[in-house]
Amino acid sequence: MNRNNFIINSFHQGLSYKEILACLLKSLNLVLSLRQLKRILRDNNLRRRGNNNQVAIVNAIQSELRGDGCNLGYRSMHQKLILRHRLNTSREQVRLLLLHLDPEGVESRKRRRLRRRTYHCRGPNDVWHIDGYDKLKPYGFAVHGCVDGYSRKVLWLTVGSTNNDPEIIAKHYLDYVSEIKGTARRIRADCGTENSNVAGVQRFFRLHAEDEDDNFSGLESFLYGKSTSNQRIEAYWSRLRGAASQFWINLFKDMRDAGELDETDDIYRDCLRFSFMGLVQQSLDDARLLHNTHRIRPYPLQECPNGKPNIIYGIPEAYDTVDYKVEVEEDEIGIAREVTKEPLELGCSVEFLELANFIMEEEGLQAPENVDEAKILYFTLTAVIRNGHI
């Protein structure tokens, strides 16, 4: 990515001028002055003060309220307008518009603050928290994710047909290890056989400590515990429900109540996964980006810094700490790949994929790009397969 594209993408992620300059130095090893940065943004017609008309902003909010943004608060909605719709507006304007456009949603989001336990973590990649999310599982969609304990950055967030297969969970883990060429000092997970391969691979990578002060090498590098101890990712699951998953839960419940879906029937579940899996993954990708680029507010007694997860994770020196990543060699990753496997494409067997693709071609249908198109595909598949018109 060249300099200008990097700056434009960073601007649309809501980074401040100071954060953009720091990211340029960190990622591209480029030093720019504030004056140069502002000139580049001005040349690309980008400015902090919104110049979008009210109609565009209202239309974008209404579009989000009809989709998976229906449960977002005004801060998250403001961030989504920037990331997805490239609209610059103020949080206050979004808050006032939501009061008018979605008064019931605003009222339902009001809640009391809870007293939270103090969380201790030294820096990025000191602790990763992994877990599965099962709220969509009754409909055939199993989610798995990982959160960095210090920065609260969501490292991966994937959906498939299962989050209980140790080989598939290990693949999610190894894909990220391969991406950053390293692993965390420690990984925390719930008790369960689905985490057994990750535990073995992590302990293999951390077999020998790199320094005498490392008390978390070998067996101590993977920690099993109750879900209440895995608080970082449990807290994120709560946030994900409002950012994405509740929309899909409501949609599939409505289809079930209308007699359009029987979640106990394998054919219905395969048709649903084939039709909606891509859209659900895109929704999770959007939710992950939204979370990683939002600004975490300070709160009393916090041990980890406030700020944007991407920045906290990527530029730890700005927060007086270091990256605790433990480097992993490519040949070690290759050895570990032996205990992984690829998840099923769209969560369906090869035989069902061939059948569904044949029906799509016969009916002149394309891969769905929105919920309405996915419903048409789903209804077509179920009708053709159930009636035997193949």
UniProtKB/TrEMBL annotation:
Entries under InterPro entries matching the protein: Integrase_dom_put
PANTHER family, A to Z: CLR5 DOMAIN-CONTAINING PROTEIN, EXPRESSED PROTEIN
The Integrase core domain, residue ranges: 119-297
Organism listed in the record: Clytia hemisphaerica
Protein name (database record): Integrase core domain-containing protein
